[in-house]
Design a protein that fits this description.
The chain contains 11 helices and 13 strands. Strand 4, helix 5 and strand 5 form a beta-alpha-beta unit. It is an alpha/beta fold. It is globular, with a radius of gyration of 22 Å. The strands form 3 sheets. The chain has a 7-stranded mixed β-sheet, with helices on both faces. The structure holds pyridoxal-5'-phosphate. The site of pyridoxal-5'-phosphate has 15 residues, from helix 3 and helix 4.
Length: about 400
């Protein structure tokens, strides 16, 4: 019998360049992590406690802050931070529409209103020049997101906030260790919010987060709120929640924190190496902001000289983005879209009344941005494979 029957399914290459390879990272720290986990298991102290307190001190110091309060996720960090400043139903919080949903979700969950203003094209971060016009009598706070690992332009944001008596929360979920003029993410606003979701540069073995602040009163309030508002136990001063961090997560994160600067340096090297490769392939424009042409269909992210970009993601802008994504997938290369729908156009915010076209820079980013693999353990040659596949795509369109 003939054995030349066609395959039932076309054979596609398996992923050869993933977006992230946590197994490769774990292989380098396996023994240290297991030892730390064992320490917690032997202690049987699983919720808050000494391991969490040690992590809080270490993250606070790493982030140039006085206080760190471990919480259950980056989402809960934002929620508890907004609760701590006393956000009330009907209050308004100015923020960016080009972020992960939790930034705006936390505002809405407290009955407050997210007020979206547009972003800067070159950094994907909130445009400080757009903030002032959005301030009303109801405005209480600004949430600045440090997207993809690069900090928002904090000086003008802090100036506007101070002039208008607004509080500033830094959503630093993607930006641990990022710097703006020598100051670390989470240390400039009234409160900083971090995520330890596994894909973050400092990722746990599950959910986790941290709130940072230099204000002792806000630190006390976040501590109170993360554990049902108890003080002492079973005597509730305020209505809080269970936003506690587990000791097992803290133990893993303490091990990983020791490696974080090395991993960040490797991400920065990869990001730096993309630029000449994309250039040699004739793919990039010199303008990092937005403008690409048929002959140079890709724009690379701005790495501002006064900032330390920690490249949680390396996000390009590109022509025919959705088709390029499919082409890369067919070549075994993982890329990702962060974020396909800006927050002001999400169905759940319909009643806020935003229309398509109202925040054009964000809307354009949502249709052009593509994250390429930049993780620290990327094997040699992977960047060239990614760039070759991109060049191959544009040579055919
Ligand atoms: C900008 C931003 N804010 C908030 C969060 C929420 O963090 P978590 O997933 O830990 O709840 C994330 C996580 O993806 C994020 O990227």
């Amino acid at each position: 019998m003939s054995s030349t029957k066609p395959a039932l399914y076309p054979i596609k290459p398996s992923i050869t360049v993933p977006l992230l390879d946590l197994k490769a990272q774990y292989a380098t720290i396996r023994d240290e992590v297991r030892e730390a986990l064992d320490r917690v298991i032997e202690s049987q102290y699983f919720i808050l406690g000494p391991e969490v307190e040690a992590l809080e001190r270490e993250i606070a110091s790493y982030s140039q802050c006085e206080f760190g309060i471990g919480v259950s996720s980056g989402t809960d960090a934002l929620l508890v931070a907004l609760m701590a400043i006393g956000l009330e139903p009907g209050d308004e919080v100015i923020t960016t529409p080009y972020s992960f949903f939790a930034t705006a979700g936390a505002i809405a969950r407290l009955g407050a209103l997210p007020v979206f203003v547009d972003i800067e094209p070159s950094t994907f971060n909130i445009d400080p020049a757009a903030i002032e016009a959005a301030i009303t009598e109801q405005t209480r706070a600004i949430i600045a997101v440090h997207l993809f690992g690069q900090m928002a332009d904090m000086d003008p944001i802090m100036n506007i906030a101070r002039q208008n008596r607004l509080q500033v929360i830094e959503d630093a979920a993607q930006a641990i260790g990022a710097e703006y003029k020598g100051r670390r993410a989470g240390s400039i606003g009234d409160l900083g919010c971090f995520s330890f979701f596994p894909s973050k540069n400092l990722g746990g073995f599950g959910d986790g987060g941290m709130v940072t602040t230099n204000d002792p009163a806000l630190s006390d309030q976040v501590k109170l709120l993360r554990n049902h508002g108890y003080k002492p136990k079973y005597y509730n001063k305020v209505v809080g929640g269970n936003f506690r961090l587990d000791a097992l997560q803290a133990a893993v994160l303490r091990v990983k924190l020791k490696h974080l600067d090395g991993w960040t340096a490797a991400r920065q090297r990869n990001a730096a190496n993309y630029r000449p490769l994309l250039n040699l392939a004739g793919l990039i424009t010199n303008d990092p902001a937005t403008t690409f042409t048929d002959s140079q269909p890709v724009a690379v992210p701005l790495d501002a000289s006064e900032s330390r970009h920690i490249y949680n993601q390396f996000v390009i802008r590109c022509a025919c983005r959705d088709e390029l994504l499919i082409h890369l997938k067919d070549q075994g290369i993982s890329a990702a879209i962060f974020y396909p729908v800006p927050l002001h156009l999400q169905e759940c915010f319909n009643e806020l009344g935003y229309r398509s076209g109202q925040l054009p820079v964000s809307e354009r980013a949502a249709s052009e941005a593509l994250a390429l693999p930049v993780y620290p353990e990327l094997p040699e040659g992977s960047l060239a494979m990614v760039v070759d596949a991109i060049a191959d795509f544009y040579s055919a369109v």
